[in-house]
Amino acid sequence: MILGIGVDVVHVGRMRHWESVPGLVGRYFHPEEIADARSRGAGESLSLAARFAAKEAFGKALGTGLSGLRLRDIQVVNDPNGRPGMLLYDTALARFREVGGARVHVSLTHESENAIAIAIIEG
User: Fold this and answer.
1) What is the CATH number of the domain that holds 49?
2) Mean pLDDT over the full length of the chain
């Protein structure tokens, strides 16, 4: 059963700005997300924007937004084929369990200056 659906769009310029502020990216992204994004070279900002959109979409799917969640507790990952997924820790995992979540489905896309993500929470 679908418990919630969320979608979000992030302008890539926002991530470029965040990258220029010391410590800001580390506040919002899991260390492994940062490493993965940096491995993409010129695509780093696009990757971060898509991941941030997924975090926002997850909050919307919860029905509560991101209030009370540490964004580093939401890690957007890719399987060996590139399919995106989400690993949840601490605050995010607790909220996910509170709503009866069993699985999160994620889809990401980006083009030029915008990244979009959808998150679906299945119970």
Assistant:
1) 3.90.470.20
2) 95
| 55 assigned to active site | no
Check residue 42 and give its pLDDT.
Answer: 83
Is 17 considered catalytic here?
no
**Residue 41: pLDDT band with limits 50, 70, 90:** confident
The one catalytic residue in 11, 55, 60, 105 is 60
Q: Quote the CA–CA distance of 50 and 84 in Å, as a whole number.
A: 10
What total of structural domains would you count in the chain?
1
| pTM for the model | 0.94
Residue appearing with tokens 């502020």 = 21
Residue 79's domain comprises 2-122
Strand ranges, E, within the chain = 2-11, 74-78, 84-88, 103-111, 114-122
